[in-house]
Amino acid sequence: MAAPGLLSHSGGLIWHAKAWRRHATLWADFCLRIERFLIDWIHALPQQRNEEGRLSGIILLGPSGGWCLPKAGFLKHFQSVVMVDSDPSAKTIFYRRHQVRLHPEQDWIWIPSSFEQALPALLARYPRHAVLFCNVLGQLRYQDSLPLERIEFELNQIKFLLSGRHWASFHDRISGEARHAQSAEFEFSSPSVVQTAMLAKRVASQGEWLDHLTENVLPPQADRRLLHWPISLTRLHWVEAGWVS
Ligand SMILES: C[S@@+](CC[C@H](N)C(=O)[O-])C[C@H]1O[C@@H](n2cnc3c(N)ncnc32)[C@H](O)[C@@H]1O
User: Running DSSP on this structure, what letter comes out for residue 135?
Assistant: First the structure.
């Protein structure tokens, strides 16, 4: 699939300018919910640690500048952090925000690529690393000229590629006009698939919603939660977050 560049919808300078303005204000509640999700996931991972008390490693796909990832705590659990993002401006921002240079005792690798190209080789190279899709899968529908059915098919295959691996994803499910939400979070216990039509009905009875084609990214056995993300004053995303172990 085509990768986003400096000015794309999914990443790039416009995205960073918006994220810089909003992450501590309009997005603050969403970012806290992501932090809680990631802490819960850490507890669900096998706890075998090295001498420094760290898990072996993590592959972050689409981390961008790490605007919605917790600045303290989460990444320090991993000895090796491998990041893959196709946005050429993201690495500098991520390294600065997460103070990567202050932590030379960890191994940091940034790969400027689309994850579709990089992931198979990374899975072979790092057989014990956990994998986290960082709000990237719901963006694939924007990226290129493939038919939507094909994009959805490829999204549905990811769980097979990751079979036997500890992995998690938070991704857009639907987005639409901002409106008052009765709740900022819903939880669903496994086994469950949250159908898009049911979700749209539950969170808003009227208005048009864009389907991000991610209904079947997570397998039914994954616990999941749906998080409210007011991306701007006029637009709202519902983001699904879940893990597989
Ligand atoms: C919505 S942003 C993610 C935000 C990020 N989680 C944060 O905390 O700042 C989506 C990111 O995914 C990246 N991206 C989009 N498609 C990609 C692909 N196919 N492979 C790798 N990265 C991709 C974009 O460059 C962008 O940085």
Answer: S
